[in-house]
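Input (structure):
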């Protein structure tokens, strides 16, 4: 075998091995959002219901129950999904059914999906909901290896567990939802950056007084690119409407992120990064990218904080996810801490004192949910605070 052939085979071997480890990112084998049959249950069997607004660069699926596929579309489609959460739900978990009959008393359930013919009709529906919910909207951008149903379940879980009071909006780009399609997903995320920029503007123009952003994994790449584009057009904060920007387990090359932040500038309201040194998914991503550190597992928190970021190092926090890649939503303390941040009145101390205080308060109330002691290390532009949680 030639040298070049050996290198190619070696890379393929690494990628296949990495894909096998990353296989747990999206979860379930069945990706039908709408069940074939749904059981009727009393209202007492439900913990709540959520209307999820959707903007997507995905093409429609040939399977109507999957709704949208992993293929790219040349235009943005809009929809709403009505979701219910069972009363047996545990914070940090997503209870979901396999194929066939769906019981809303046991599982997250999509009860209906509605489409919109254009951005104007979507904006009108969005405007009515935002007005009813006090003028706030939360945009969630998912990561790599995420099919449409996975994304809908995740934003529903976050909105529910964080007790978010505003309008939840899912921006879902065309992830193939397969572990071997990392490069395809990265290109899909890049292709979607204009659409995300337009979606953020549409939300701001639909009556939102505050637009919060939560991005996960590779979703941080498209998010930072869209924010960079807003900055280039001299509208980096959506005319003062941009609220919190939370970057969870960001799968971005550190040098690229620094470049993005240089263009964006130091944010008036510090961005928040959830980072973890034991994030196995990001470790593998770094190997694929030429052994380059990712923002989500970068060791020098102070260097990142100096860019106008609050870095929450959650390495010591435990979750059931063996990849340690979804801690921000899977851990009861962290997802409720996120809710405290998103539901705040918007007067956060730029030094990060507010987030530190909220972590302390939540840790006291939720410490009994941890099997062992842990520590969250919060680094801000001016100080470092260690917060003990657990028993």
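Output (sequence):
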């Amino acid at each position: 075998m030639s040298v070049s052939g050996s290198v190619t085979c070696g890379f393929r071997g690494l990628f296949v091995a990495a894909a096998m480890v990353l296989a747990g990112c999206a979860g379930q084998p069945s990706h039908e959002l709408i069940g074939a049959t749904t059981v009727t249950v009393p209202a007492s069997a439900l913990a709540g219901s959520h209307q999820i607004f959707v903007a997507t660069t995905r093409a429609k699926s040939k399977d109507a129950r999957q709704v949208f596929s992993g293929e790219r579309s040349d235009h943005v489609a809009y929809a709403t999904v009505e979701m219910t959460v069972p009363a047996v739900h545990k914070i940090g978990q997503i209870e979901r059914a396999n194929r066939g009959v769906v019981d809303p008393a046991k599982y997250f359930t999509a009860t209906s999906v509605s489409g919109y013919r254009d951005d104007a009709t979507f904006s009108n529906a969005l405007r009515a909901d935002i007005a009813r919910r006090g003028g706030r909207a939360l945009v969630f951008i998912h990561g790599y290896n995420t099919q449409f149903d996975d994304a809908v379940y995740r934003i529903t879980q976050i909105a529910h567990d964080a007790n978010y009071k505003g309008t939840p909006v899912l921006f879902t780009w065309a992830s193939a939802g397969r572990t071997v399609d990392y490069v395809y997903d990265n290109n899909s995320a890049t292709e979607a950056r204009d659409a995300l920029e337009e979606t953020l503007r549409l939300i701001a123009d639909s009556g939102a007084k505050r637009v919060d952003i939560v991005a996960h994994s590779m979703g941080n790449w498209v998010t930072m690119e869209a924010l960079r584009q807003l900055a280039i057009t001299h509208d980096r904060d959506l005319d003062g409407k941009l609220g919190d920007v939370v970057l969870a387990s960001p799968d971005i090359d550190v040098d690229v992120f620094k470049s993005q932040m240089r263009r964006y500038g130091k944010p008036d309201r510090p961005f928040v990064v959830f980072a973890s040194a034991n994030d196995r998914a990001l470790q593998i991503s770094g190997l694929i990218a030429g052994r380059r550190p990712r923002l989500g597992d970068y060791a020098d928190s102070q260097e990142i904080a100096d860019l106008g970021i609050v870095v929450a190092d959650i390495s010591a926090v435990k979750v059931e996810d063996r990849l340690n890649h979804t801690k921000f939503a899977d851990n009861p303390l962290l997802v409720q801490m996120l809710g405290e941040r998103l539901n705040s009145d918007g007067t956060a101390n730029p030094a990060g004192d507010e987030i530190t205080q909220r972590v302390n308060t939540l840790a006291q109330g939720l410490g009994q949910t941890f099997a062992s002691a842990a520590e969250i290390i919060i680094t801000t532009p001016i100080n470092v605070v260690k917060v003990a949680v657990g028993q």
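Notes: The CA atoms of residues 138 and 212 lie 5 Å apart. Residues 3-389 form a domain with the Rossmann fold fold (CATH 3.40.50.1820).
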